[in-house]
Structures are given as C-alpha cells and as structure tokens.
Design brief:
Shape: globular
Strand content: under 5%
Number of helices: 7
Structural class: mainly alpha
Order of helices and strands: HHHHHHH
Length: about 170
Amino acid sequence: MEPWNVLLVSHVIAALFVLAIGPIQILRRRRDRIHRTMGYLWVAAMYYVCLSSFWIVTAGHFTWLHGLSAFTIVTVTLGLVSAIRGNIRSHLGNMIGSYIGIAVAFAFAVAVPGRAIPQLLAQDPATAAYIAGLVVLSVLVVFVSLKRGGSAGASSGSKDQTPSHFLRV
C-alpha cells in the first residue's frame, strides 16, 4: 500500500472535489458566470489530479490509471478549448467523458483492496467521512458564494456579460 503523504492526500482531496463539482456542472441548466467559474475550478483540479498521479506509483511502475490520466489531460484540454471557441457539443462530450473517466478511476481506487482508500475506509472510516464531508461542504460554499455574488451584482445594476455562444446548448 502507498503510504499517505501530502501528495497522495492532496490528490485524493482534489479528486473528491472534481467528483463533487461534476454533477453540478453537468445537471445545472444555466451556462452562466457560475458555470464558467466552477468550470475553471474543475479544470484546474482535474489537471492537478491527472498530473499528480504520475508521482503516485506502486513499486516504481505505472498502471493503466496513468494512461487514463494522460488521456484525460487531452480531453479536458480539448473540452476547454471547445468552450472557448464556442463548440458546445465538443465541450460537452469532452467534459462529460472526462468526468466519467475520473468516476471510473475513483471506483477502481475505492474497490481494489490494498490501495490507500480502501485501507483508510477499513482502518479509519470516521476520517474518510470527515474528509469527504469537508470536500462536499467546500463545493457547496463555492457554489453558494458564486450564486450570492451573482445576485448581488445583478441587483446593483450590473449585467452578466455572457457571450451568446456560451448560452447555446
């Protein structure tokens, strides 16, 4: 089992953050400032999860998860570029595909005995629940803060300057 260290802990927390933000981004109908801001946070966290994975190896060897990380870096980048260029269909496909990829990686990380997360769940479930709760709470705080910031800005007379190509789905 990989010993818990700062890299592994930050990798797991960022992955949980990505997993928590994903459904909000996918299921929310409005593609507004909140979507863009949370999307940039999601992309940054995805890059961190993927890049940090290359320093998390078992017995000095890469696994298929590292291949998934490399592929995900490409798909997240394509999704980001597609959004900037206004190609929403490509953006949607790449981002949902990237989310599915990290969900599969998470399922593998939780289900395979001998990996760090199942060990933590078996040895200290309270800590695992506490960390997961903090991640979900942080996502909710970011979302509510953005939501309140948007409504406060709207009441003061400023208008969200969302380009029309970001509103099409």
